[in-house]
Amino acid sequence: MSFKPETTAPASRKRAARRSSAAPTITDVAREAQCSPMTVSRVINGEENVREDTLQKVLGAIAKLNYVPNRAARSLAAGSQLRIALLFANPSASYLSEFLMGALQEASRRDIHLMVQACENTAEAQGVIRKLLEGGIEGFILPPPLCDDQSVLDLIRSSGGIAVALGPGRASGSHGAVLIDEFQAAYDMTRHIIGLGHERIGFIIGNPDQVASGQRLEGYRKAMTDAGLAIDESLIAQGQFTYRSGMLAAERLLGAAHRPTAIFASSDAMAAAAIAMAHRRGLDVPGDITVCGFDDTELASSIWPELTTIRQPIRAMTAEAVAMIARIHRQKPGAARAEAEQRTLAHQLIRRNSDAGPSEAASISKPPGGQ
Q1: Structural contact between residues 292 and 352, judged by C-beta atoms closer than 8 angstroms
Q2: Is the pTM higher than 0.85?
Q3: 186 and 324 assigned to the same domain
Q4: Which of 47, 90, 202, 205 is deepest in the core (most CB within 10 A)?
Q5: Domain extent for 122
Q6: Sequence-separated (6 or more) residues with CB below 8 Å from residue 356
Q7: What is the C-alpha to C-alpha distance for residues 121 and 294, in angstroms, rounded to an integer?
Q8: 10-24: pLDDT as tens digits
């Protein structure tokens, strides 16, 4: 019988293997985001003096690498730290920026271990959640569409985890929810546009698989009805909350022979796309057409004209979701958990430069013989 001599891997290869298996560091995040570790530190600690494009890169790197601050890792090693996972699937970079910042800042303040994980769909989410549960994650923040999927909530609850929905969802059984009044927010914006003198108001719906989309549509419909205005179904276009879907929806609305004098889109990304499409067709915003959005992400104030929109306090909502999980977790082990919490935060209509009363130029949209 012969034996092969044991070989020893080169030291450089061993170091590389250790680096590849180790948790990412602040230096790794800085390298991925192409900035300094000090800048990453400022983002994690919620400091304001970070340029928006740099902030986006750092948040993207944190999400991609599932980075956890060293302070959190040290507390975790002591076995005393609450562990929360923030799952996301939203395609809007500006929404994601606010979404991550609120959770990161609150988790840092409370010394909570926060993992950030992208999930393309609910089927993928179930596999991710199982692994996270096995790894000791105790709380989950579930934005749409994950909070609409009953199997996701059932999986977390049956495993003893804490699930908090971010926004309205059709699934039941979460331990809490943080949301705004989606119906009332859309109602308020539609009444604002009507108050400017518009009667032909186009509406771009968000992702049809999300509860909030239907609630915003109903708010628009109710405001139109209460004002005594007929609802023209040809002025309602389907979107997906994405910029591209907003382009396609706006193209249909603006290409109609009897186009609207205003468009209310269910997200800032779709509203920005509607403005771009209007410009492509030689229309002035708001001189020829009013465009309004929803969310008040960074995008709303970085395009021209700046967007009139509904401010959804996304950063405050994710911070409250982290705090809610912490409150629930503090209950005595074995004690019956209280009824699900629900926090409805205030929305705000932010008026900027993209809205105005219908102009004479809008008369070209009237059908022959129109009044």
Answers
A1: no
A2: no
A3: no
A4: 202
A5: 68-174+314-345
A6: 196, 286, 287, 290
A7: 23
A8: 444 444 444 445 678
